[in-house]
Structures are given as C-alpha cells and as structure tokens.
Amino acid sequence: MSQVVEMAPSLQSRLADFPRVQASSSGTTQVLVNERPILKLRDRERAEVIADQIGLMLVLNPELNADQIRPALVADVPVVRFRERVLFTIDRKLAAAQKRNSVSLLQDSLNRLRTALGERPLSMVEVQADLYNLKATRQRLKGLASWYGPRFNGRPTASGETFEQREFTAAHPTLPFNTFLQVTNRHTGSSVIVRVNDRGPYVKPRMLDLSRAAAYALGSTHPGVVPVEAVVMKPGS
Fold this sequence. Notes:
With about 240 residues, this protein is of the alpha+beta class.
C-alpha cells in the first residue's frame, strides 16, 4: 500500500499562492500571485523569470515572513528582495514604459506582492528610507512649497542634471545638492522623500519647488502653494 504524505498546512497555503503569468489584451504579461496582479511587463520571458523567483521563495520558505520582502538598491537599481535574494528589479526603462518613476513603480509592485501574501503595505517614505538607508535628523524646515513640471522638463538643473518631472526631486535656495528631505503636506499629512538637485524657488516666501511627481505624492498638483514641513535625512550607519 502506498503511503499518503500530507503537506504541512503552511506549505499547502503557500502553494495556493504560487505565482503564474497571464497575457493581457494590451500586449503585456502580468505576474500574478494568489491571482492578484503584481507587475506587468512587455517581455514575457522576464515575467516568467520573476514568477519563478517568487515561486522558489515560497517553496524554500514554507514559514515565510512576508515582512522580509523589502526594497533595496543593487548597483543603483531599485529591486524587491527577500532577505538577500533579489526577486525582481525595477529599472528606468520598465518604469518609463509605464510613465512612472522607478521608485513609485517599485512601491506599487512591492506592496502588491506583500499584500498578496498577507502582509501590510509600506508607505512611500518607508520604501525610500529603506532604499537609500536614510534616517531623520533634528534639522527641520517649515514653509510653503510650489511645484514645477512640463515647461522645465528636460532642461538642465543648477546641479547639472537634467530635470525629470517624474522623479522625486526639489529645488532649494541653499541646501547642498543631493540633500534628502522628507517633505510632509501639513494639510493632508502625506509625505515623500525628495533629493535636492536644483536652485529655487525665487518667489518669496516659498521655501521649496517640488517636481511634479513629488507634488503629486503630496496631493498638491493644482497651481499655487501648500504648507509643508521638511526634515533633513542622512544616511544611517
């Protein structure tokens, strides 16, 4: 008589979550986990590799703690990883194809995977702080923020970089370039971390000029200004 081998309940439930890929009418391929869409790509082969990586994680970790699925930077490219294993990358080309920046697409796909596996989503600030290993300092600024976008998109900034309205950047009159600021909309409580790469604003009493993506993250894309509080962030140990 053959012996019946029963799977542990935790492994059985993880196999129910097992990822697969699905073609869509738009010509893209979606990666699904627990029948929930995680990420869409135009490259089916790449989608299958991502599904395989997530599937391997589930098989090798039947007692999976999905809170260990976190964002990271590998060779300056945002990735989603479990412990030290990279599950997938979000490069600029993939993000641009979806008219997003890589960090916002990373947050979206990361949280879709975490919630599909029963874990809470991470806020934008949590994702950015993890990515860049940032900690808050005691240096705080309060004032008004405006935003700038289409008219300046593609033009050089004061730092020499090209302004890209989809990135989370800001202009400040004096802070050193590459300073990170956690900016909070004092009306809504929404927050985002921006990197200073330009000079301005030149209209008093405004303190910051935000990129369009940063303003959108704060819920402030209408003309005018919004009261903000900014905390200077520094790399942690």
